[in-house]
Design goal:
single chain, 149 residues, alpha+beta, two-stranded antiparallel ribbon
Length: 149
């Protein structure tokens, strides 16, 4: 059972500040370890959060498969580069997942990568989530780092 102590204002404010700091950032969403939307920046409506949840689930699954094949440790980030946008998906140590979209011809991808890493490092301030026994595994604890015999 997951016990979340996230206030909408605290998380939304943190995600709004993340989006506001990087030119071209369009939205940010945080998903639970189970892929359920926990919150989003001001630009995120329920339909978009649901769509992002589905996309992220597939990309995380591919990332986990890559960690198993490459035997390179736990999954930290997936970045999707499209012709007009980037989608950053980063795992947070408590099991939640940050997703940010940045678009435009003159965007600074390095700035967004830095801000995503900064958010992940400080996430416990914005995401005081306690995971109960049923959901306590983080992405790194899913067995992705074990070698196949």
């Amino acid at each position: 059972m997951t016990s979340a102590v996230v206030t909408d204002d605290n998380l939304t404010g943190a995600l709004d500040r993340l989006v506001d700091r990087v030119h071209g950032a369009e939205f940010a969403v945080v998903l639970s370890p189970d892929g359920l939307p926990l919150g989003g920046s001001r630009q995120v409506e329920a339909k978009l959060a649901e769509q992002i949840s589905g996309v992220v689930a597939g990309l995380i699954a591919l990332g986990l498969a890559a960690t198993r094949v490459c035997d390179a440790g736990g999954l930290r980030q997936v970045v999707v580069q499209m012709s007009r946008a980037f989608l950053f998906i980063a795992t947070i140590p408590n099991g939640t997942i940050l997703t940010v979209r940045i678009a435009g011809d003159d965007v600074e991808v390095g700035d967004m990568a830095y801000e995503v890493a900064l958010f992940v490092g400080q996430a416990e301030r914005h995401l005081p989530i306690s995971l109960g026994p049923a959901s306590s595994a983080t992405i790194e604890d899913t067995g992705a780092h074990h070698r196949h015999r």
